[in-house]
Amino acid sequence: MNTQIGIKDKPRKNALVMFIHKLGSPPWFYDFSGKLIPWCWLIFGVLTVWGLYLGLVKAPADYLQGESFRIMYIHVPSAWMSMLIYTSMAVMGFIALVWRIRIMEVLAMSSAPVGAAFTLIALATGSLWGRPTWGTYWVWDARLTSELVLLFLYLGVMGLYSAIDEPRKAARAACLLALVGAVNLPIIHYSVKWWNTLHQGSSISLTGGSNIDPSMLWPLLIMAIAVKFYYAANLLTRARVRLLEQDLRKGWVQNVVREQKP
Amino acid sequence: MSHTPFIWAAYTVGTVVLLWCALAPLLRKKSAFRDIRRLIQIEERSGDSNP
């Protein structure tokens, strides 16, 4: 009986281990991610159109902020992504440093420009929302300042990676910086609680009730999911290019180019 | 104060940054493909001249 269970369980366990092993293989990762990317773009496109339609057309104007609250549908998902991408970059960086998995180095380094883009959008759109709401584009408020520090951290990781010629050595140094910079994440999150800030506190809570009307909340959640697919598509595209650049003398890359698989 | 220009500006900034961020790796891929093709040609030529 036990033997039968053992025989039944073994292939299942092997399939998972095999998948993880395959993920670490650049040629397999290149092929696999190439199949995922178009689906990620498609889902991102559909969700963005749907979310923006609900947020910009269907949702009513806010009783206090008027129409300017609609900036929230790009500002809030971008701000969330800026922190989520940094978290994932730090986790991937940690895995890369501890287990020396090259694909994790590549993914961590490919995350940085996407995270920087979302941070820049969060800062710029927040500033554009601040002008009609607070009467100023910028204040040295704890939330805004810590988010600006996040942008500098992303730029620092990208800069350090570019400054070292050997890609694996560069990735390890940049992963270490990413890990150290993760200390900024709780500061950003709790800044509105720890300090008396001009930036408002959270309107949405995973544990408690959200003090935002469902007609305004749903478009925000749809947009928040949409940008995750943007990140996935962009990250995988960047990781594939990085692998091509790093392995350009290897047979699998030359086969990819010969077969014209873009 | 009309809020419309701020909304337009925010979505324009978002669109431009996200578009640039999506297009940049595609341009790099194009350039990487060109470099690899050149490398293959060099290797094939040197292989032909040294039988």
- Average predicted confidence as pLDDT of chain A: 91
- The outline of chain B comes out as rod-shaped
Shape of chain A: globular
Total number of distinct structural domains of chain A: 1
Query: In whole angstroms, how far apart are the ends of chain A?
Result: 50 Å
Count of individual helical segments of chain A? 9
Mean pLDDT of chain B: 91
Instruction: State the oligomer.
Output: heterodimer
Kindly provide the radius of gyration of chain B, computed on alpha-carbon positions and rounded to a whole number of angstroms: 22 Å
Written as H for each helix and E for each strand, in order along the chain, the element string of chain B is H
Fold and architecture overview:
- The complex is a heterodimer of chains A (262) and B (51).
- Chain A is mainly α and 262 residues long.
- Chain A has one domain.
- Helices cover 78% and strands 0% of the residues of chain A.
- In chain A, helix 3 packs antiparallel against helix 4, helix 3 (72-99) packs across helix 6 (167-181) and helix 3 (72-99) packs parallel to helix 8 (214-246).
- The longest helix of chain A has 33 residues, at 26-58.
- Chain B is mostly helical and 51 residues long.
- Chain B has one domain.
- Chain B is 90% helix and 0% strand.
- Chain B has one helix and no strands.
- Chain B has one helix at 4-49.
- Chain B is rod-shaped, with a radius of gyration of 22 Å.
- The chains are: A mainly alpha (262), B mainly alpha (51).
Features:
heterodimer, A: 262 residues, mainly alpha, 9 helices, 78% helix, B: 51 residues
